């Protein structure tokens, strides 16, 4: 089982990429097949580790709609012909920026990872 820190770091990296991709604006997004491919892919990649975070961490943060994120992941993965670019754009605007500080705070609140027993110096 991986540390929640790894998943949270990955989520933040996906958010950074999405922010970078949508920075040129809605018109650029709607005109670019590359951005239309990249942004949903990063949303999918962001959603995947949210489903692997520890149950305890998820329960500690009920303000995050974990099930909704997972459901969106399923749409992106399994219903690629039904992806609504207007909805993708809407997610990138209020929802990603609103979620980012929460993920950053979750990461900051995690205790430092313990060193595995085999790596500890027992002199």
Describe the protein's architecture and organization.
The chain is mainly alpha-helical and 123 residues long. Helix content is 71%, strand content 0%. The chain has one domain (4-109). It has helices at residues 4-22, 26-31, 33-50, 55-60, 66-78, 85-109. The longest helix is centred in the last third of the chain and has 25 residues, at 85-109.
SSE topology sketch:
Blueprint: H1 4-22, H2 26-31, H3 33-50, H4 55-60, H5 66-78, H6 85-109
Please summarize what this structure is:
The chain is mostly helical.
How many domains is the backbone divided into?
A: 1
Low-pLDDT ranges: 115-123
Could you give the order of the helices and strands? HHHHHH
Share in β-strands: under 5%
Average per-residue pLDDT, rounded, comes to 87
- Class from secondary-structure proportions: mainly alpha
Q: Specify the helix fraction band.
A: over 70%
Overall 3D shape: globular
Oligomer: single chain
> Quick one: biggest sheet?
none
* Number of DSSP E strands: 0
Report, as a whole number of angstroms, the end-to-end distance: 29 Å
Rounded to an integer in angstroms, the radius of gyration calculated over CA atoms is 17 Å
Number of helices: 6
Summarize this structure as a short list of keywords or feature phrases.
mainly alpha; 6 helices; 123 residues
